[in-house]
Design goal:
The relative contact order is 0.17. The protein is an alpha+beta fold. 20% of the residues lie in helices and 19% in strands. About 8% of the residues have low confidence. It has nine helices and eleven strands. The longest helix is centred in the first third of the chain and has 19 residues. Strand 1 and strand 2 form a beta hairpin. The protein starts with 13 loop residues before the first helix and ends with a helix. The protein is globular.
Length: 420
């Protein structure tokens, strides 16, 4: 079967779509009157459905590449913001289906018009692209008449011991998370949405990520972080509906009144964690394993045999002390030591060049989806910040919290969803 690409579903005219089908493309794209595009068949495994009860990019099988951007709204006109969110919806739906950002696209407007798509993804596959939107606490400050619609749980995260936050890499009125198999597909999605927002939004900060650091489905193998350890072994999986309802999805009882739009959504915690990998690389294996609390080769909790064995914090080591030290990361982050708190992790490795002092600026771009960040992430991070021996090798340099609304029905868009 021929692989579907943005060229094969380019919707500048009906002939282009027909050509894609004639070439044996496994799904057909159709254009609605608003210019949106959606697959009519799920036969193409490279397309993740854009619409549904939940936003894609949360429990979706974690892709390998990320482009994340936080933006500030620079207009004071709520109508402009609402219109942009509506146009973003159409463009995001098109791009996730493998089409260009608009029907005119990169070349359809002719030689003397500015292209409506930047074109770098024209010949690329959809790549399981997902585009997830979130809103920061500052968006509800009264500028746009949204103050009454702010969910109570959407408030800035507190400071944590050891934080070294850079304001230029923290916060934001809203965010876009684009994940894909191909980095250029993810970058293309963010680039074109930001481009559409010229004069309405500006980039506050962004982060590229590679190599997912967690698995979100049971079929995915556990990946490794830049310290070489398997990461996210105990992560909540998409197949565990009960755990998702308890720990990830905002329930109707959690929100009321004008904030009821958030029911079915999730809160996104973003933390940029710098890893001092040069120091780590000079540490003995035994120190590394005791810092994490797991075996480096197979990922088993210390004192156990297999990766998915439950940690046994009562097991003693050769020295008579706990096999998993009391200040090990696994022990402090385990739900049994946090009154049952669990989170859905969806982070990525990053390397952002050097720090100018001969060290790589590299680490973990931590992303987690939770039902209530202040009842889940905050107590977890406080416990880790206070006692985790891993803090000798890391520092948190960026932080943000966003409310990611539920998914969209067939006739809905982000502008209507937020402002209605």
């Amino acid at each position: 079967m021929a692989r579907s690409t943005r060229r094969s579903v380019l919707l500048g005219g009906a002939g282009a779509a027909a050509a894609g089908v004639a070439a044996g493309v496994g799904w057909a794209a159709h254009a609605a009157s608003d210019g949106s595009v959606a697959p009519t068949s799920a036969a193409d495994p490279g397309v993740v459905p854009f619409r549904g009860a939940r936003q894609a990019g949360i429990t979706t099988a974690a892709q390998d590449r990320l482009h994340f951007v936080a933006l500030d709204v620079i207009t004071d006109d709520p109508a402009q913001l609402r219109d942009l969110l509506t146009r973003w919806t159409r463009a995001a739906e098109r791009m996730t289906a493998g089409a260009e950002a608009t029907p005119i696209g990169a070349v359809g407007g002719g030689q003397w018009k500015v292209p409506e798509d930047t074109g770098e993804a024209l010949d690329l596959e959809p790549g399981h692209l997902t585009v997830t939107i979130g809103y920061g606490p500052s968006l509800f400050d009264g500028r746009f008449g949204l103050a009454g619609r702010r969910p109570e749980a959407l408030r800035d995260l507190p400071a944590f011991v050891g934080d070294d936050l850079d304001p230029s890499k923290s916060g934001g009125d809203l965010c876009i998370q684009a994940c894909a198999d191909d980095p250029q597909v993810a970058v293309h999605a963010v680039r074109n949405l930001v481009r559409m927002g010229f004069g309405i939004v500006s980039v506050r900060w962004s982060q590229l990520g590679f190599g997912r650091t967690s698995s979100t489905t049971q079929a995915q193998k556990t990946p490794r972080n830049l310290f070489g350890f398997k990461d996210g072994t105990a992560n909540i999986k998409a197949e565990d509906a009960a755990a998702l309802d308890e720990h990830v999805w905002v329930q109707p009882a959690d929100v009321s009144g004008e904030a009821a739009w958030m029911a079915g959504g999730s809160y996104l915690v973003a933390r940029r964690i710098r890893m001092h990998i040069e120091v780590w690389d000079r540490s003995p294996l035994a120190d590394q394993e005791q810092t994490i609390g797991r075996d480096k080769k197979v990922g088993a909790p210390l004192g156990r045999d297999a990766e998915f064995d439950e940690p046994d914090f009562a097991v003693t080591g050769l020295d008579g002390g706990p096999a998993i030290p009391v200040d090990a990361h696994v022990r402090l982050a385990h739900h049994s030591n946090l009154d049952g708190v669990r989170i859905l992790r969806r982070g990525y490795n990053f390397t952002d060049g050097s720090d100018g002092q001969g060290h790589l600026d590299a680490g973990l771009f931590f992303l987690a989806f939770v039902r209530d960040a202040h009842r889940q992430f905050v107590p977890m991070q406080r416990a880790l910040a206070r006692s985790d021996v891993l803090n000798e090798y890391i520092e948190h340099t960026g932080s943000a919290l966003f409310a990611c609304p539920p998914g969209l029905a067939a006739d809905d868009d982000w502008g209507t969803q937020l402002f209605a």
